[in-house]
Amino acid sequence: MNDKHLTYADSGVDIKKEEETIKVLTKGMNYKREGLGAPLTGIGHYAGLIDFGEYALALATDGVGSKVLIANEMKRWNTVGIDCIAMNVNDLLAIGAEPISFVDYLALEKHDEDFAAQIGEGLRKGAEISRMSIVGGETATLPDVVKGFDLAGTCLGMVKKDKIITGEKVQLGDAIVGIPSDGVHSNGYTLVRKIVDESSYSYQDKFPYDTSTTIGDELLIPTRIYMEVLDVIKECEVHGLAHITGSGLLKLKRVTDLGFDFTDPIEPNPIFRFLQEEGNVDDLEMYRTFNMGMGFVIILPPDQAEKAASMTGGKIVGRIVEKGIKTGELVIVE
């Protein structure tokens, strides 16, 4: 175990500095199209919405991040395509939009047929789970820029204007339903890699909490795609949705200015216990970096919470309060 308390910033990713960069980057983006195609939301929510008559078209873009470096270590790339699609699709679901099409961007140092086939396998499976088409993409050979590869994509979705969910209806006393994650998903891997690299373990070693698999394979478990959320939206009065990704529970600040009290949180997957122990990471840093076992959140009236939980394999984890984010005795943010 590392004697030092490792943080995400120590590994090279400072969330606060990222937020400052985004503010500077978007500061001058003032032009807005009018009429058909006009923006319906500002920059900063899970997905961008544009006017398309009776419907709104939703756009999200994201990549796999440094998880691809673990795929390289394991020489197994057939799951990262699922991650790429999941990170985009889940962001569309977080505003109530149904995904309909996808384009990918693959930047390569060099070409390899087996590698390409495995990337394609993951993208194909992710698209099938998401019930959408991959309609195109771009492959770029950039040996002077990319060492290895980078995989990203953009997803298009649609939602009727009166069905858009941005969190504005969230109110005090609403129930919070948490849906389990399948593991680390596709965020925080710069810290993950630093923890493993500074430990006595390698990615090929047996995972201490399940010796039937390796640490690398456990970390390559693909991001869960939460398509069942669309069914909940059809049958329940959903007030807010959140995809828990980079910055962990801090993502909830995108949904509402009200607070979250997690009185019965989902138990984190064993991989989080391993990372926390090996990296000597404190609780606060874990919850503001990783999903900690809860990859998606649904906010809705208390009398509908049990139904939503049963439809998703989730459970009621807490309620909406006046301010802050708390899980047990841990205060994530005031």
Describe it for me?
The chain is α+β, with helices and mostly antiparallel strands and 334 residues long. The protein has 2 domains: 32-163, 2-Layer Sandwich (60s Ribosomal Protein L30, Chain: A), CATH 3.30.1330; 175-333, Phosphoribosyl-aminoimidazole Synthetase, Chain A, domain 2 (Alpha-Beta Complex), CATH 3.90.650. It has helices at residues 15-26, 67-74, 80-93, 113-130, 189-197, 215-219, 228-235, 270-279, 283-287, 305-312, and strands spanning 48-52, 55-63, 98-108, 133-141, 149-160, 175-180, 206-207, 210-214, 240-243, 259-262, 294-300, 315-321, 325-327, 330-333. Strands 9-11-6-12-10-13-14 form a 7-stranded mixed β-sheet. Strands 1-2-5-3-4 form a 5-stranded mixed β-sheet. Strands 7-8 form a two-stranded antiparallel ribbon. Helix 3 packs parallel to helix 4 and helix 7 (228-235) packs antiparallel against helix 10 (305-312).
Class from helix and strand fractions: alpha+beta
Give the % helix.
25-40%
Number of strands: 14
Major sheet: arrangement of strands = 9-11-6-12-10-13-14
| End-to-end distance | 31 Å
CATH superfamily of the largest domain: PurM-like C-terminal domain
CATH hierarchy: architecture of the largest domain: Alpha-Beta Complex
Number of helices: 10
The CATH topology of the largest domain is Phosphoribosyl-aminoimidazole Synthetase, Chain A, domain 2
Based on Cα principal axes, name the global outline.
globular
Number of domains: 2
Averaged pLDDT: 92
Range of strand content: 25-35%
Helix and strand string, N-terminal first?
HEEHHEHEEEHEEHHEEHHEHEEE
CATH class of the largest domain: Alpha Beta
Unreliable spans:
none
In angstroms, what is the radius of gyration? 20 Å
Q: Major sheet: size, sense and barrel closure?
A: 7 strands, mixed
